[in-house]
Write a structure and sequence with these properties.
Strands 1-6-7 form a 3-stranded parallel β-sheet. A two-stranded antiparallel ribbon has the order 2-3. A two-stranded parallel ribbon has the order 4-5. By secondary structure, it is mostly helical. Helices cover 58% and strands 11% of the residues. The chain contains 9 helices and 7 strands; from the N terminus they run E-H-E-E-H-E-H-H-E-H-H-H-E-H-H-E.
């Protein structure tokens, strides 16, 4: 199981309210399903892989996603710093359950070539347009680059065994059929667990 950044954020942003506080929890969307699925898969012996690039992205995105999560909770006057620290600890615990991987240059090139083929294929114009709508970009802004290429490259290397990429990212979800048929990687939509 390979996790992308949004899945790691969803896993880590899950806080139970303390005694004396209002009932309920503060959690990111899909947090319960991500935690449940990961827990069940790890109990069956599934191997957890977290691309090195995800660790850096997690740190960069944590404050913003935490602020959105608190805002959506509807609760006022919440001290975010203890929640931020708790999310960091939760993520470190998650990383400790698996292994960190950095892709080889050949795999990065393979991921770039894969997306280049998708962008050149006239039969996939509808998928490129769907990608652009979901990402709030123009079709010409693709194909995906940066961290998404590195995450796919690590998944390509892991696919040499039994691999699934757990994600909430449309760079992968829109093209999940092509990723499976051409690269042998199952893309698991964590919003559908």
């Amino acid at each position: 199981m390979l996790l992308d950044t949004n899945v790691c954020l969803g896993y880590s942003l899950h806080f139970k309210r303390k005694a004396g506080a209002p009932e309920g929890t503060i959690k990111a969307p899909y947090s319960d399903s991500i935690r449940g699925y990961l827990g069940a898969r790890l109990k069956t012996g599934a191997q957890l892989i977290i691309p090195v690039v995800v660790i850096g992205e997690f740190d960069r995105k944590l404050w913003d996603v935490l602020a959105q999560t608190i805002q959506k909770s509807g609760l006022k006057a919440i001290n975010a710093l203890p929640l931020y620290r708790a999310a960091q600890v939760s993520f470190k615990d998650l990383v400790a359950k698996g292994k960190q991987e950095k892709p080889r240059k050949e795999s990065v090139n393979e991921a770039k070539e894969f997306y280049s083929r998708l962008w050149a294929d006239p039969a996939l114009a509808h998928k490129r347009e769907a990608w652009a709508r979901l990402k709030r970009k123009g079709v010409g802004d693709g194909p995906p680059t940066g961290a998404d290429i590195e995450i796919l490259a690590v998944a390509i290397e892991a696919a040499r065994g039994d691999s699934e990429l757990m994600t909430l990212d449309n760079d992968f979800l829109v093209f999940k059929d092509e990723i499976l048929s051409q690269l042998g990687i199952v893309v698991r939509d964590c919003s559908m667990l």
